[in-house]
Structure formats: C-alpha cells, structure tokens
Amino acid sequence: MIDTHSHLFDEEFDLDRDLCIKRAIEANVKKIILVGFSKETNLKAQELAKKYNIFFPTAGLHPSEANSNYLEEFEEFKRFAKENKIYAVGECGLDYHWDITYKEEQKKLFRLQCEYAIENDLPIIVHSRDAQQDTFDIIKSYNGKLKGVMHCYSGSKELAKEYVKLGFYISLGGPLTFKNAKEPKEVCINTPLDRLLIETDCPYLAPTPFRGKRNESAYVKYVLEEMAKLKGIPISIVEDETESNAERLFKI
Ligand code: NI
Predict the structure, then answer these.
(1) pLDDT in tens, 38-79
(2) What DSSP character marks residue 198?
(3) Hey, which end of the chain has fewer CB within 10 Å, N or C?
C-alpha cells in the first residue's frame, strides 16, 4: 500500500513516531507521501524524509495560509521548492469553510501553485472544502496541462468524472469507511480503479473502527479494504492498482 497523504511530522506523533512508522511497515505500507502545507511543515516534511526512506516529501501552501502577504509567501515557497527535492506541489487549494476573508487571495495563491506545478512538471495535491465549483473552474482552466490528485475527495461522482477526464486522480481516505458516507462510497464505485488512490490524512480523519481517534499511516489498510469491498474486487488487486497509480502520479 501507499499512503498518499500523511502528516506524520505532526506533533501528535512526537512521542511515538518511530512506532507509527514501524506499524505502517508491518501493515505493508511501502511508501508514504509526506504532505507539507505551510512554511513550517514543508521544512518538517523534508527533515523527516531524510531519516526514513519510506517517505516522499511535498511542499505547498494551504488556503488557510493565504493572506495579504500571499505574494511574498509564494516567493519564499518557490525558493524552498527549488532548493529541496519535492514530489508534488501541495497541499494547496481552496477552503471556504471557516473563513472567506481572503477568498481572492486563496484563488490567486492556488493559481500560482498550479502554474509552478506545470512549469516544473510536478503533480499537485488539491485540498477543496466548500469550494467545489471554484476549485474545478481553476483546474479546468489549465486545459489538462495540470496533473494531480483531489485529496480526501468529498464531491459528487459526477464531478469526480470531470476530474478524471482532466487527467486527475481521486484519493479517498477515512470517511470512505463511515457508515453514512453515501457520497464517497458512490465515488469509489463509479471511478475507474486506475484513477483511485488511498490515503489517511493522518493525524486527522481516522477510519472506522478508529473514528474520532488519532489516525496513522497503518490505518490506510481500512480504506483499502473498504474500497475492495465496494468495488467487489479482491483486496490484492486493488492494492496493486492503487500502488501503481501513486507511483505513476508521483514518479516514485
Ligand atoms: Ni492534509
């Protein structure tokens, strides 16, 4: 398995990070995409990735980092991304859930990162919350030149189909295992297997039976199992396919 979205550098793991990595390896997790989302976490992802070769670090600026200083922040991001090996740009995107003070800045910051990804032939990891239409419009405006993944996708199956047409992958996480998660289950059933990825987004969004607790990369197996069940395909096949999808997208 490949956990395509993990924040194992988070302080939630400061006391038992080595054990979490050990449990992930024991659960047959082979690679982990370590996702940065701010100046501080981009650096943490690099540092942790130097210690264990299971990790592949990314760097990005989350929409909650957007403010009136966004141009300066982006310049700094660019310097960082040039100096360090990164496997994707992100997570980045739009989030209108908590605060829309900097809605325009969010859009501009997202576009800058999309353009950086295209110029540097990197995939993008997209976070989108309560901003489905704007996110899609921006991605679509690059006419298929932009490649990437919709992380912890929470939109409709119809929109997922549009993303697939644009060359995007759909990543599903813990919410897929929730009993009442009708939409992610429909997305899983209707999206072709060669476009699906699995992730944890740990320490957040733990799958059943750990819902509400701290999540960790080993738990990506519950997402895999649910995906196989919903698709009616043996676990080993879904495991192989989602692994090759991640390897293809991130060139790992
Ligand atoms: Ni995340």
Answers:
(1) 999 999 999 999 999 999 999 999 999 999 999 999 999 999
(2) E
(3) C
Q: Are 202 and 7 in contact (CB under 8 A)?
A: yes
CA of 168 to the centre of ligand 1 (A): 18
Residue pair 3/11 in contact (Cβ under 8 Å)? The answer is no
The DSSP bridge partners found for residue 171 are: 197
CA of 5 to the centre of ligand 1 (A): 6
Domains and CATH numbers, the chain: 2-250 (3.20.20.140)
- Alpha carbon of 8 to ligand 1 centroid (Å): 10
| Count of other CB atoms within 10 angstroms of residue 181 | 18
Longest dimension (CA), the chain: 50
How many angstroms does the Cα of residue 23 sit away from the middle of ligand 1? 20
Q: What are phi and psi of 150, to 5 degrees?
A: -90, 110
Low pLDDT (below 50) residues in the chain: none
